[in-house]
Every structure is written in C-alpha cells, then in structure tokens.
Amino acid sequence: MTFSSSILSRHQLWPRPRLHRLLSDAWTNGCAAPSRCLSTDGPSLHPVIGENSVELLGHSYPRDDFTNVTPKILGKVGRHLHNQPYHPLWLIKERIKAHFYSSYIGRWGNPVFSVHDNLSPVVTVEQNFDSLLIPADHPSRKPGDNYYLNRTTMLRAHTSAHQRELVRSGLDAFLLAGDVYRRDEIDASHYPVFHQMEGVRLFSNHELFSKVPNGEDLSLFERGGRRTPHKQESHTLEAVKLVEFDLKQTLTRLVTHLFGSDVDVRWVDCYFPFTHPSFELEVRFQGDWMEVLGCGVMEQELLNSAGAGNKLGWAFGLGLERLAMILYSIPDIRLFWSRDERFLKQFRVEDVQQPICFQPLSKYPPLLNDISFWLPESFTENDFYELVRTVGGDLVEKVTLVDDFTHPK
Hints:
CATH class: Alpha Beta
Structural class: alpha+beta
Helix content: 10-25%
Strand content: 15-25%
Radius of gyration: 22 Å
Strand order of the largest sheet: 5-9-10-14-13-12-11
C-alpha cells in the first residue's frame, strides 16, 4: 500500500465532511456505576496505559483484546476545550447557551433548558450504542472506528451516549456539550477528537396540545398504528407534526441567531437509529448548501427505556468545530488544540456575539512525503493513521491511501 502523508505548517477546514458521520450513525462514565459518576470535576490525573490496565480520570480499566486507545488520545481527555474561557469552541457553546437561555423561559422566569457540559467522556458500550438502539452488528461499533478501553468501556463517540441517563433523571429539556472520540484519518478537516452539542426536549400530552383548539381530545399515542416515513407506529400523526414543527422552528431560530437573519435554510430527510422521522438542516454558505446539524423525533423505545414513556420528544446534534470553522474562518481543525498565544488571543473578546475572522499564523508551504511498505493480512488503515499520529503529532496535515497492490505470490 502507498500512503501519502502531507505535513503542513498550521495553515488550513473542517468538520468531518458535512459533519459526515455527524454520528456515523450517531450524531458520531466510566466508573463502576456510570449513572452515579457523571462529572469530571476533581483532580486531573495523568492517564497511563499499563501492561494490564488503563488508568484514566482516577479509575482503572482492565485491558483486553478490545483495548485500542493510545497515549496521544488519552492525552486529550480532560482538556475541556469547550469549557476553556475565550476558546473558539467555548465561544460557540456560549452563543448557543445564551440563545436558548434568552429564547425559552419558563412561567417563573427561569430557563427551560438546563446545560450539562462536564460529563465524563468515559462511558459503557451499552450507553454509547445499546441505549440509542444501535444494533449489535452495526458497523459504527467496530474497533476500527472507536476508542475502546476494553470490551465494555470506551471513550464516547457522541454526546448522545448520555441521553438516556439525563432523561431518566427527570429532565425534559436540556443541552449537552462535550468532547467525543472517533478513530479517523487526520487532516485539515478531520481529527480523532472533536466536540458536539445536542439538545433534547420532551412534551407531555398537555404541554403539546394545550394551545390547540379542542386539544383535550387529542393524544400523543395511538394503538395499532403503523410506522410510515412520517411517524412511528405508537405516535399519532397530529402529535408528530406538532413536535416536528416545534423542532424545526427551534433550530431555524438557532441557525438564524448564529448566521444572521438573511441566512437561507432547507431541510433534508435522512436516517438516524434513534430518531424517526429524521432530518438534516442545511444552510447556504458562500454559494453552497452545507449541512450543519442532524435532528428528529426521538424513538419512543428510547424514551420508554428511560422512564419517560408518557412523553414524546425531539433531539438534535451539531459539531462545535464545524460551526467555529465556518463562523470564524478557521482553516484547520487542529488549530483548536493549539496553545499558541497568537491563536488564542484572537478570540479574547468582550462580547461572545462579536464577529471574529481568524488571522493565519504561518506562511510556509506544505512538505509532501510518499511512503510505501508491505502489510500483514490483519492490517487496517486506522492502524497506520495511529502510528503517524504517534510519531508526527498534529504536524501531519493529511494521510491518504494512494494505491495498493497484492503480490501474486
């Protein structure tokens, strides 16, 4: 196989192509009892990969044949870029928080949405996949796409891994932000660690129909219904249409808040395992349509398992890096991890809503290297990507498979 590795001097765009895998199929608390060990507050302990265990965030996880997390990736755990004041990811998160806080107020003047941005990125496989109805044979579970501490514990691949536990705790409206981890190539628009923010809102029968004439005669659920492209089998069409309207209105307002009142938007039908119907929201940016988030009506089975079977709800998820790269003209996703003061000081503003245009740090051209080598049968491309990251770090701009050849002997 021939891989081309391009080493750049910090001068380049993101987001996981169209947030392509916004969750590969998941909008993409590691302790004995994850639901009781959610926060990463407390001392930040240095992670260690030992011969028999992985030490991370004050806990020890036994190694097994699934363990594939690397020292470089563990070194990113606990950085909390989205909570670092005046970091561009923090600015985007705060802009979204401010919008929801000001736009959705309860009857007593309190914010409707609570915010959770400090949950541990170590989760169980059950949290990351099973709780979201992702099938056992789904390709998104492959070790080649995820970072496993062992067969039962992993670094979350999406913030949705916490959805069920937050709903089970009694929350009906919340925002969730955090770092997520996916084994992937590394280039100007992809990185194995990035940040997501998502929202969930649930409605009771009264909340959904209270403003509808004769709403007392309407119901969220029906018996003997069937699944169609427009609704789930247990939902009434009236309920789904109202939830869908509220979801699209909420997200259109959010995108207008971020991009400006003159932004063009459109909705595209899509598929996620944990919502139906599901949609992607696209905005017209610099002449092209660009996907910025995924969303949909939550699968009722998910709500039933979380103890909220009497409610119906929506959820959405977006990538913070993608939005920051667009809104601040940041050309390279790896810049978010920079400690360079020339980068960080550009985002120290008095008002989080203030427009910012990133100024490049380097004028040096790229250096390209071609590497060819023989491979064993068990080799996967991500094995090589991890090796490159370990040796070259964030200086490696892009690694691409150019050609492969199988010798007849």
